[in-house]
Amino acid sequence: MQQHYEGYKDLADSLKSASALLNLERKSQLHQDIITICNHLVNPSFRIAVFGPFNHGKSTLLNAMLGNRTLPIDLIPTTGAAITVKYGSDVQTRIMFVDGTEIYRSGTEVLQQFAILDGNRQMRKDVASVEVFCPHPFLETGVELLDLPGTNDRDEQDNLIREQLLSADLVIQLLDARKLMTLGERENLRDWLLDRGIKTVIFVANFINLLEPDDQKQVQNRLVFVAESFRAELPPGFSNLYRVDALPALRARLKGDVAAANSSGLAAFETALQNIVGILQPNRGSVRLPRVEAIASQIQLSLKAKIDPIAIEIKSFDDKQNTKIEIKQKAANLISKGFTTSVGELRDWLALPKLLTKYQADAAAALAENNFKAWQTNTLKKDLNQLQSAALKWLYQAYEFFQEERPQDLLIPFPSEPQLTLPSKPSNTDDLSEPGSIAVGGGIGWLLGGPVGAAVVGSISYLLNKNIQQQDEQSAKESYHQEVAKLCITAIEDYFSHFSSQGLSILTEYEHKAEKIICFELSQEPLEITNKRESLQELQNGFNQLLRELEKAKIVSNYQPYKEIPKYTNTKRKYSPQPERVQTSPEKDTGVKQQQENTAKNTGTRVESVSPPPPKASPSPRPEEVEAKFRDWELNEEIARMKAEMRSPKACRQTSPGFKTGKQQNTTQSNKAPSQPKTQTEIDKITHAYSILGLQANASLAEVKQAYRTLVKKWHPDLFVNQPQLQKQAQEKMHLINEAYTILSEK
C-alpha cells in the first residue's frame, strides 16, 4: 500500500502545477484546499477528525478514547488550534510557529499556552500547527486523531476546520442530542463534507444521558432518521450512528471502571471504529481520491475559464491571418501562372525556327527593297513589344499586390541591321536588264528597282518555297537575282539567329529577377499574440498533464484533453510560388521542315527551321490562341476579385469554422442551388440567360462557367477575321453570351 501511495506523488505535483498556472491568491479557499489535499495524498497515516460545534464535547470524547486528560477541556470554547494526536513512546507536545521555529515540551501542559482561545476568544496567529504524541496502541497502527476547534464561533476558526476536514480519512461528527442537527450543522454537512467528496462520516450523539427516558427514545428515532438520510460510504455491515456519553466515558476510563465505560457506549463505539479503520486503512485511495476528484474538477473548470478565451482570441487572429495569406498565396500562384504562360509564349516566339518561319520571307524582301528598318519597327518590334508587355503586366500585378521589389522593364534589343555585299554582275546575261548596283563600304547601299528588284523579291519567296532534289540543285544555273535573293535570306537568318540567342538569354535572366517580385513576406505576429500563444501552450499542457494523472488514478473526468498545438515559429519568411515551365510543342509539320532543308541546300547555309512566308492577309487566330485569351481573362478577373477581398474588412472578419475561401468557397457555390430572385422580371432574365448558354434552369456556377468557356471558344470574333459576315454574327452572339454569363454569375 505504501508503494501504491508513492504513485500519487505525480498526481499531487500535477495538482500543484495546475494551481500555480491559475495564480490563485494564497488565502483563497481553492488554493488552501489544493495544498491540503496534496499533502494528504502522500501522507501514509490514517487521519480521524472529530468535528462539530463548540461545546459539543469533542476534546472530551478524544480524551476518553485516549484514557487520560491529554487535551484541554473547559466549559467555554477552548481548542484554538487543530491538534493532531500521533503515536509516541512518551507524552510530548510540539508547537510549530508560522516563522518556522518550533518548541518541544514533555506532557501537554503547554497546550494551555498555545492551543486554546485567548481572552477575546481568538486563535493565536503565530501558531502554525500543534502535535501531541501519546503511547496508545490504536495510534501505533498508523492512526492520527485530529481535534478541531468548534464551529459556529468565528469565521477564522471555520476556515481552519473546513481546510482540515479535507485531510481526514474518517470524520466523526459529534451531535448534541439536546439540540439535534441544527440548521448550521446541516449546512456544514452539505457544504463542508458532501460537496467536497467527504462521505466517510460517523455520527456520534453526545449528552443523551442528560435527557429523560421518554425524550431519549424520541431522540434516538430522530438520530436514526438523520443517519439514514446521509449515505455514508462505510464498509458493509457497519452503522454510521453511535451513542457515546463523552464525560461519563472519560470518568469511567480515568477510574478504570470497565462497566461504566461500556454503559456509556464508548466500548461499542471504539470496537466499531477500530474495525472500520482496519478495513479502510489498507485502501486509503478509495477514501482520498473522491476528494481529489472534487478539487480537480474545480481546477479544470478554472483552467478552462482561462484557456478558452485565449484560444478563441488566437484562433480569431490566426483565421484572419490565414485568410489574408490564402488570398495572397492564391494571387501569387495565379500571377506566377500568368507570367509563366506569357514568358513561355515569348520564349516560343523567340525560338529561331519560329522566327524564321514567321518573318524570314518578309524580312528578306524588306532587306532587298532597302526597307528593313521600317519593317523591323512596324512589324517585328510591334510583335515583340506586345509579348514583352504581356509578361511585364503580371509583374506589375505582383508589385501592386505585394509591394515587394518594383519590376524593371523587359528589354530585348534588336541586332544591327543586316549588312551584305552584292556579287559582281555578269557581263553577258539573259536576265532582265537592271540599273548598275555596287557594294558601298560593305553595306547595303544599293537599291533594286524595276523588274530586277521585283525578280529578287520573287526569288526570295521562290527559294524559300521550292522543293528541288539535290542533284538538280547542283546543276542548276542560277540567275543573278537569285544569287542576290540567297544573300538576303542568309543575312536575315544570321540576324534572327543573333536576335534569338540574345533574347532567350535576357529572358532567362529576367525570369530569375521576377522571382523576387512574385512573392510576399509572412510577417512576424505581434509580441502580444506570441506571449498569449506561449501562455495558452503552458495552460493546455498543465491541463492535459493533470488529466493524464487523474486517468492513472482511475478518477473519471468530464473533460477531454486539448489537442497539442503545433510548434509556432515566429520568424519572417517569404512565400514564392514555384513556376511551372511551359513546354513548347515540337514542330509537327514535316513538310515545312523539308522546305527548310531544301532552302539550306539552295543557299549553302544551315537553316534549322524555316517555313513558307505567311500570307499578307491577317490570319484567323487558332483555337489555342482564343483559349489563351480566355485564360488570361479568367486570371485577370480572379486577381481583381482577390484584390477586392484584400481591401474589404469582411475578408478578415470571417473567423467562424464554417468560413471557406478560394476553391472551397467556389465549390460550395457550385454545389448549392442559387437562391430564387424576388421579382418576376429577374426570374425571366435568369431563365433567358440559362437558355442562351444552353443550360437547364438552376444549373450550378461551375456548369455556367464551363458552358461560357465552350461558347467563347466557338464564337470568339477573332476566329472569323477574314469572314466579315460571320464575324459580325459572332460579335452579336458573344454580346448575348457575355450578358447571360454576367446575370448568372452575379445572382
Question: How would you describe the overall organization of this protein?
Answer:
Helix content is 56%, strand content 8%. The protein contains 26 helices and 11 strands. It has 747 residues and is of the alpha/beta class. The N terminus is likely disordered. It is rod-shaped, with a radius of gyration of 51 Å.
Q: Can you give keywords for this protein?
A:
747 residues; alpha/beta; two-stranded antiparallel sheet; 26 helices; 11 strands; rod-shaped; disordered N terminus
Distance between the termini: 74 Å
The total count of helices amounts to 26
From the alpha carbons, calculate the radius of gyration and give it in angstroms: 51 Å
Shape designation: rod-shaped
Q: Write down the oligomeric state.
A: single chain
Instruction: Report the mean per-residue pLDDT as an integer.
Output: 78
Mind sketching the topology for me?
Layout: H1 2-6, H2 8-22, H3 29-41, E1 46-51, H4 58-66, E2 83-87, E3 92-97, E4 102-106, H5 111-114, E5 127-134, H6 137-140, E6 143-147, H7 155-165, E7 170-176, H8 183-193, E8 201-206, H9 213-229, E9 241-243, H10 246-255, H11 258-263, H12 266-280, H13 285-350, H14 352-368, H15 372-402, H16 450-465, H17 470-475, H18 480-514, E10 520-522, H19 527-552, E11 573-575, H20 590-603, H21 623-647, H22 650-653, H23 662-671, H24 680-692, H25 701-715, H26 724-746
Parallel strand pairs: 1-6, 1-7, 2-5, 7-8, 8-9
Antiparallel strand pairs: 2-6, 3-4, 3-5, 10-11
Helix pairs in contact: 2-3, 2-13, 2-19, 3-13, 4-10, 13-15, 13-18, 13-19, 13-21, 14-15, 14-16, 14-18, 16-18, 24-26, 25-26
